[in-house]
Write a structure and sequence with these properties.
The protein is mainly alpha-helical. The chain has six helices and no strands. It starts with a helix and ends in a 6-residue tail after the last helix.
Length: 86
C-alpha cells in the first residue's frame, strides 16, 4: 500500500506520528523494533523535537516500508520552523 502512495507523481509526506496512528503502532514498538533506541527518542522524532541520526532514518524507512522517509522528517521540520519550500 505504501509503495503505491510513494510511486505517484506527487509524493504525499507521511509523518511518523501519522504512520503510527494509521498502523496502530506505538512509539515503544518502533523503539523496540529499531533496537537501542528509547521510546522517548521516537516520541521526540515524531514531534520534530529531535532529528533521527542517518542510520535511524534508514531503519525507519525500512520499518515503515517506505511510508516515512528522511525527506518527510525534513519537510516536517521545515513546516514547524516557518519554511514553506525547501
Amino acid at each position: 500500500m505504501w509503495s503505491v502512495l510513494r510511486s505517484q507523481l506527487y509524493v504525499i509526506p507521511m509523518k511518523l506520528s501519522k504512520w503510527c496512528d494509521i498502523t496502530g503502532t506505538s512509539k515503544k514498538e518502533i523503539a523496540n523494533k529499531l533496537g537501542n533506541v528509547s521510546s522517548r527518542s521516537v516520541f521526540r522524532w515524531a514531534k520534530s523535537e529531535r532529528f533521527p541520526k542517518p542510520q535511524e532514518l534508514l531503519r525507519i524507512e525500512q520499518l515503515t516500508e517506505g511510508a516515512v522517509t528522511a525527506n518527510d522528517f525534513v519537510k516536517q521540520w521545515a513546516e514547524l520552523n516557518g519554511q514553506k519550500e525547501i
